[in-house]
Model the fold of this input.
Amino acid sequence: MEVTLRRFDLSDVDAMMAWASDPEAAAYCRWEPYDSTEPLLAFIRDTVLPHPWFRAVCLAGDSRPVGAVSLAPTADACRGELEYVLARAHWGKGVATAATKRALTTVFGEVKGLERVETLVDVDNPASQRVLEKAGFRREGLLRRHY
Amino acid sequence: MEAEAEGDVSLREFTEADAEALFEWASDPRVVRFQRRDAYAHVDEARRYIIDHVLPHPWYRAICVAGADRPVGSISVKPTECRASVGYRVAHAHWGRGVATRAVSAAAAEVFAEWPWLARLEAIADVENPASQRVLEKAGFTREGVLRRYVVLKGRPRDMVVFSLVRGDREEKPAEEANGP
Done:
């Protein structure tokens, strides 16, 4: 499974609605599903475009995004937090694993001072835990009552 | 100023007048070894720190022992969402007597009471700082794992052990005796 990562554009809003409006895709994310494209356009404009590292996940040879992956800064420059989301139509095919691997390779080259990429996964989300293990993450522990 | 007491350890708010006491541990390389900040060279740095960082902080306390007013250390709790993180330091002369452990217990009791939204209190300790790890274990925290290359300390990435105390940990055990049918 090959993917490419690219910056988002406002014109991606319709493709984005495929996962942004889906309660199942959003189930373990920190945001609520979107009902309409206006607030999603505002999210792209106000959060995605100025973000230090936010990328659209595209299947090789196709320019339409099927998901997103981002690295959020934390209180320390040495540490970034990875998040990803994928449209349900593309689950179970290795897309998230490929996107995560590609993201890791890229950010460790691009982001100055980065020593550690971390991510938090709900205990009730074993599918995402497997994606991360296959992408090379190491499970460190269980943070109780974190959210 | 309200004081939370545990054994002969009590917590109170700082004032500028505590600058010299704070300078005593903040200038000690043994105390600041696992901190990002370098040891202070002048008491004015301690005074500035109290004014700029301690007084505006959401929860920062001086640790006092045996009824004496001069602090021997500090403890702070920083809230984020439903969590908060606790950090502490104690003057070297008062190490090895359970001062930090009692201060952490007292601080935990106070913040869980003061902040009903608080579900989780966490702390990190350098993997090469077993004394601090023992403080947290004795204060009832659960060790959850090692966060690799979590912070860069004086130019070097450090692995940190993460500990937590969640609200349910502190509930009293139910009475074991039955009083009858």
